[in-house]
Prior knowledge:
The protein has 170 residues and is α+β, with helices and mostly antiparallel strands. The protein is 39% helix and 12% strand.
Amino acid sequence: MVLNTCTRCAVIFDSPRLAKFCGRICWQRHHRETPAMVMCQNCGDPFQPRSGVPTYCPPCRSQAGAIRSRRFRGRHPIVALLSVHSGRAEKYGVVNTLTIEEWKVIVDQLEGQCSYCGAEGTQIDHVVAMSAGGPNSQDNVTLACEPCNQAKKSWDGSSAAGWSTRRAKC
Length: 170
């Protein structure tokens, strides 16, 4: 007889041979808790799944998540845009009251044109930047084209000359 220690429950038991588990119950529980290796359906690499029905290894799963995220942003650009700005508002600790409906009203009022140069507007521009304490609200946002939004940067509105001298060429 050989004295063994169960790898699952740490009970000392004697067995006629070297064994890892004290009995069938510990063996079954151990094998339920640690699933077998499976093959990734994308790349074919073996991996040990954590839970659920595994189909992809972690690198392929994160790549698939990025693809789903890009697909979502393509199908719902306004929701994705406002989601990014809500996260930034939380980061800077400013008021965040801008809704999808309010943003659609702003875009309709400006007829989809940049409020600075009249080109096609594609971005949310905060008149007073959130980094300077400006809220993410209907009163503080406007539609801007990418060149104007990038040229304006974080101008806080304190001087009229500050933005007009750096005005983008659209």
